[in-house]
Amino acid sequence: MTVLAGGLSHERDVSLRSGRRVAEALRDAGCEVSVLDADAHLLPRLRDDRPDVVWPVLHGAIGEDGALRDVLELLALPFVGSRAAACRLAWNKPIAQSIVAAAGLRVPASIALAQATFRDLGAQPVLAAAADWAGFPLVVKPSRGGSALGVAVVGDVRDLARAVVDAFAYGDTALVQEHVPGTEVAVSVVEASGEVLAMPAVEIVADGGSYDYAARYTAGSTEFFAPARLSPDVTARLADAALTAHAALGLRHLSRVDFIVTDAGEPVFLEANAAPGMTETSLLPQAVEAAGRGLDALYRGIVESALPSRVP
């Protein structure tokens, strides 16, 4: 089989680390694994080698917007992870939130503001309207993307313009949404050996208060509790919510669903990740270990679910 890692997105380094970890676990499980970068040499190599299964461990647009998976489907190569159409839904945060809300989950109130809106209507009036609508603090993030790149919690109107500009560095639309106080958690969903399972929720406590890019990928900068310090009832509600979001978006094989749990114990959906991080500090591997499962055996089970005889 072949693991794809790297690419040219802002998250290349994370992808390379994730790819190495996945390949190591699969080798420990007895799989013969090659690791390839997503570059101009990739497609000729895939055509020549015809691996039994491809596992894209690519983050950012190339790994999560569905484009590469479209190509794998064109080549008729089985692959781990969600199909292209589902990736496109999850990648676009406003669309994903609409779909998940229709499935019955709570999502933050939000508005999507394109760069063209600021150009046509004027930045200051639009920002003032957004501030009046959301109040402070509020959250600004790119409408597409991962690893918390371009995400900011804004506590004052004076910082709003900078936050929107920073979000535009990662795409042409910024998402402005209400800040929901509570406990930040992530629930990973895996499909292996014919089962769809919600792994234990992982609670996230960032030293600086914000689970940003540095907090995600710098060892020791964030404290994790796996399983999360939540009541059994809230834990069960989170698992059900993650499975609901996974199914509503049409995700497959593995995903990570991020929530805020309010003080009343209600899960609030933030986003779903079709290509979750797999590094030593990433949440899915921590959840798997908290469930008492070995990464090698589970990853092999995920690969077996992707084999042609197991594809629905």
Secondary structure layout:
Blueprint: E1 2-5, H1 12-28, E2 34-37, H2 42-49, E3 54-56, H3 61-64, H4 67-74, H5 84-91, H6 93-102, E4 110-114, H7 115-121, H8 123-134, E5 138-142, E6 152-154, H9 160-168, E7 173-178, E8 183-192, E9 195-198, E10 202-206, H10 213-217, E11 222-225, H11 232-248, E12 254-261, E13 267-273, H12 283-290, H13 295-306
Parallel strand pairs: 1-2, 1-3
Antiparallel strand pairs: 4-7, 5-6, 5-7, 8-9, 8-10, 8-12, 10-11, 12-13
How would you characterize this protein structure?
The chain is α+β, with helices and mostly antiparallel strands and 312 residues long. It is built from 13 helices and 13 strands. Strands 8, 9, 10, 11, 12 and 13 form a six-stranded antiparallel β-sheet that branches. A four-stranded antiparallel β-sheet has the order 4-7-5-6. A hairpin with a 2-residue loop joins strand 8 and strand 9. The chain is globular, with a radius of gyration of 19 Å.
